[in-house]
Amino acid sequence: MTAAGESHIGLRKNNEDSYYINEDCRLLVIADGMGGHEHGQLASELAVQQFVTLVDGKCPEAFSVEQMETLFEQANKAVYEKQEALQSGIMGTTLTVAMVDGNRLYTGHVGDSRLYLLRDDELTQLTQDHSYYAELMRQGNTDIPLENRQKNVLLKALGPEETVNGQYFEEKLYPDDQLLLCTDGLYNAVPDEDIKQIMEQHTASDAVHLLIETALAKGATDNITVIIYRHE
């Protein structure tokens, strides 16, 4: 497995993004917290920790979409219960997870972090943004003034509610496929075509670093977290 990840605080006072890579188990996890500096960071860390625990000691012998959904339910419960205990406002996080078992990709997703697939010179977003703006676009409302787009308003996140309905699916992978997991700090600043070219022309570790540098150069102010995996 070839995988690399990196996170940058951007121009924020705190980095509320969290990520985790386990190369042996081919597990990739990314989360973007919300709810204020410390609470957002805590929410993303709690969500990611559910998957760190999954592979603590050994990799799962097999995996399934149903297992992914169960783990998301557990992660949601952990964040929700912490929010209830703190009693200091809404606390939540996005969560996007890719688990590769053989040539099968298992994905779980809530929020507006993203999972992309790069295959045969085509970059495809596999996950669906759970945001107000994305929902308007899906309904065909494309003529929206920029100031009214409200890109950062999430319709779904892990933690604010006692239950959450995420996106869960299975996909076949082929040799040389690449996966990109990222928070919105990247894709809000760097066009898909630029992302694709950087992934095609560089190693995973170099591409991760260059994508973050490109986002910063284009004026990104948010936290930026990127993971790239190359399937062999």
Summarize the structure.
The protein has 232 residues and is an alpha+beta fold. Helices cover 32% and strands 28% of the residues.
- The CATH superfamily is PPM-type phosphatase domain
> From the helix content, strand content and strand pairing, which structural class follows?
alpha+beta
Give the N-to-C terminal Cα separation.
Answer: 6 Å
The fraction of residues in strands falls at 25-35%
Total helical elements: 6
* CATH-defined topology: Phosphatase 2c, domain 1
Biggest sheet character: 6 strands, antiparallel
Any idea how many domains?
1
Shape designation:
globular
Spans of at least 5 consecutive residues with low confidence: none
* Mean pLDDT rating: 92
From the alpha carbons, calculate the radius of gyration and give it in angstroms: 17 Å
Q: What level of helicity do the residues show?
A: 25-40%
CATH class: Alpha Beta
Known CATH architecture: 4-Layer Sandwich
Order of helices and strands: EEEHHEEEEEHEEHHHE
Number of strands: 11
